[in-house]
């Protein structure tokens, strides 16, 4: 199996020589998650919300779900994670949320996949 990335490529750089986007991460409690959900709903243009389920079928395209269903699934434990792609202030972003015992872990980066 061939990979697009080489073990010899410098870390922090794409094959075309451009820099990788900054990666931000942090833990969120349930109040933080509610605030994030509100902000995403009110101030962004949602492109896709893809759930990460336990035992998903390999090779199957991931379904998309509503933003509210994603946050509900994170809080009730029915989702292993969720990836939210959205547009804010003229830039694309990708948030990945994974449940924790006290809320969720957020990993955010500018989305480099052309839309």
Question: Could you give a short description of this structure?
Answer:
Helix content is 21%, strand content 36%. The protein has 2 helices and 5 strands, in the order βαβαβββ.
The tally of beta strands, per DSSP, is 5
The assigned structural class equals alpha+beta
**Low-pLDDT residue intervals, each spanning 5 or more residues:** 1-10
Characterize the overall form. Answer: globular
Series of H and E elements: EHEHEEE
Mean of all residue-level pLDDT scores = 83
Placed side by side, the strands forming the largest sheet appear as 1-5-4-3-2
User: How much helix, percentage-wise, in residues?
Assistant: 10-25%
Main sheet characteristics: 5 strands, antiparallel
Please report the number of helical segments.
2
How far do the termini sit from each other?
Answer: 27 Å
The rounded Rg comes to: 15 Å
Residues in β-strands, percent: 35-45%
Any descriptors?
115 residues; alpha+beta; 2 helices; 36% strand; disordered N terminus
Protein model, in words:
- With 115 residues, this protein is of the alpha+beta class.
- The chain has a domain at 23-53 and 62-110.
- 21% of the residues lie in helices and 36% in strands.
- The chain is built from 2 helices and 5 strands.
- It has helices at residues 30-43, 67-76, and strands spanning 23-29, 45-52, 81-88, 91-100, 103-110.
- It has a 5-stranded antiparallel sheet with strand order 1-5-4-3-2, with helices on one face.
- β4 and β5 (103-110) form a beta hairpin.
- α1 (30-43) runs antiparallel to α2 (67-76).
- The radius of gyration is 15 Å and the shape is globular.
- The two termini are 27 Å apart.
- Residues 1-10 have low confidence and may be disordered.
